[in-house]
Structure formats: C-alpha cells, structure tokens
Amino acid sequence: xxxxxxxxxxxxxxxxxxxxxxxxxxxxxxxxxxxxxxxxxxxxxxxxxxxxxxxxxxxxxxxxxxxxxxxxxxxxxxxxxxxxxxxxxxxxxxxxxxxxxxxxxxxxxxxxxxxxxxxxxxxxxxxxxxxxxxxxxxxxxxxxxxxxxxxxxxxxxxxxxxxxxxxxxxxxxxxxxxxxxxxxxxxxxxxxxxxxxxxxxxxxxxxxxxxxxxxxxxxxxxxxxxxxxxxxxxxxxxxxxxxxxxxxxxxxxxxxxxxxxxxxxxxxxxxxxxxxxxxxxxxxxxxxxxxxxxxxxxxxxxxxxxxxxxxxxx
Length: 314
Ligand SMILES: Nc1ncnc2c1ncn2[C@@H]1O[C@H](COP(=O)(O)OP(=O)(O)O)[C@@H](O)[C@H]1O
Ligand SMILES: NC(=O)OP(=O)(O)O
Hints:
single chain; Carbamate kinase; eight-stranded mixed beta sheet; binds adenosine-5'-diphosphate; binds phosphoric acid mono(formamide)ester
C-alpha cells in the first residue's frame, strides 16, 4: 500500500561530530541515504524530506564573524535560508542523480520554506538549539567571555553554541508542499527547520533563531497527513541512561512510556528531546500513525524492527 513518508535528516547526520563539514563529507553522508530513500520510492511510497542545519548554520555564522570587517555579516534568518538552499541543492542533486542512475525518473524539488514563530516564544530568553562545531569546556568559556555567546554541553560530545529555537506554528508554503507531492515529485521542504518568520502589520518578517527541524518536520508530516515519520540521526536507537554504563537501547516506546522517560530526564533539550516530542505529537493526533528514530544507514530496517526505535500511540 502506498504510504506518505516524511524523512527528517539530522544536521549532525549530514556533518558528523567527528568531521569538519567539508563539501565532500556532507555530500558523501547525503549520498549514503540515497539507496534507502530510493528503496522507499521503489516500493511506491510518496516521500517528503526535511533536514537539519545545526552544524552548517553555526559554521556559516563563524565565517560571517571571521570576515565581518570586509563583508557585511548576515542575520541568522538569512543564514538559515542560505543553509536551506545549499543543503536542499545537495539533496536534490545527489538524490536526483542516484534515482536516475537506477532508472527512476522522478524529480527531486527543494522548496524555500518559511515557518511562522511567535516573537514572544520563551526560547528567545532560553536558547537551546545547538549550532556549529564542538569545543572543549575551556574554549567555550573563553568564547562566552569574549563574545558573549551562550554555550552548553551537548550529550557528552563537547560544548556548542546555543541559539533560540522557537516552536514552529505554521508552514507558510504548506499548500505548495502538498501540490508538489501530488505531482509525484520527491519534495524537500522546511530545511533547517524552515526560515523563522513572524507575522507583522507589514507582512512576514525574518526572526533570528533556528527552528528545530524535528518539530517543523512534525508539522509538515501532520500537514500532509503522513502515515510514517522517520527521524534519521547518528545513533541507531533511542536509549535510556544515554552515555552511562547503565545505558539501554529501546526498540519501541508507546507515548505513555516516552512521556515517563521524558519526565525522568532521559531526552535532553536540543538533541533527543525534540525528536521524542515530535514523534509523540505525530503519533498522538491520528490513530495508526508510526514514528521511527533511527540512524541514517538503517532507515529502511526501521520498518522491519531490525533497527531504530518505533514510537506508537499505544
Ligand atoms: N537518550 C538518548 N538516546 C540516544 N541518543 C541521545 C540520547 N540523548 C542524547 N542523545 C544524543 O542526541 C543525538 C541526536 O541529536 P542531534 O545530534 O541533535 O540530532 P540531529 O541528527 O538531528 O542533528 C544522538 O546522536 C546522541 O548523541
Ligand atoms: N535545525 C535543526 O534542527 O538542525 P539539526 O538537525 O542540525 O539539529
């Protein structure tokens, strides 16, 4: 049976924590996903892709800063749009070439997507979205003192800059996303969580933030009434006691189990927290829906239970 499947690629899955984030590294990581996406297309499913941009947008801000005396720096919403464009380009071309190489003539279209947020969102005073490279604690403290940026520890991987990550309220181009999917195209939308915008008397206006792509992906997935939502990241499965000697991987979670683990603090903000929350929201709203959190390499194995964590309403 044809299903509508939404895939969310993590920014950290496109630039791994051990990599510098060169063009070749990013494209090679995207290339690794093509066979899995193609498999879903071969099975006749409609595929909508979204992706993160945390490492990439943080690197772009660093670049901005390094040459600010010569080239005017751009605000964060513009940097998000830059990474939405460059990663959308990488996915469109890499996946398009792969599909063509196996005889599938389906266009892969990336859509510039704006996402409405509230300027009153509490995240503007409590930044939680990790962006850019990892630093040691000493380096992070130095940067915090000299530049006033906020840094936090990211899941045992090092210290990273954090920026506001408001709740996505509405996908401005949602009708276009549906129409493009209906043409049979593979659609890439709300990249980097979407470009954050607020409604004002004069119309939409950019907001300096980075929306979590898992939360925006949930809005997309619910908006197109998807059957399945796959959150693709670096780890193979969700864990409890992550990174501790008592760590345990989870092959499945019901919403009530996920809520209990959430309340016990197993899913930190800015990393696994939003993935689990997005999965819960997706499966809670319509019976029968399934969300999967799985590594990029094992995307298809999630459907057979060989890999990943499946989240269901009951
Ligand atoms: N309970 C947990 N189970 C699995 N991974 C976790 C958990 N808590 C934190 N993590 C970390 O969260 C990461 C996923 O978040 P992140 O890197 O922000 O995702 P993305 O791939 O979307 O960029 C994992 O790679 C892992 O390092
Ligand atoms: N925007 C966003 O959620 O990026 P990551 O997937 O890199 O965290």
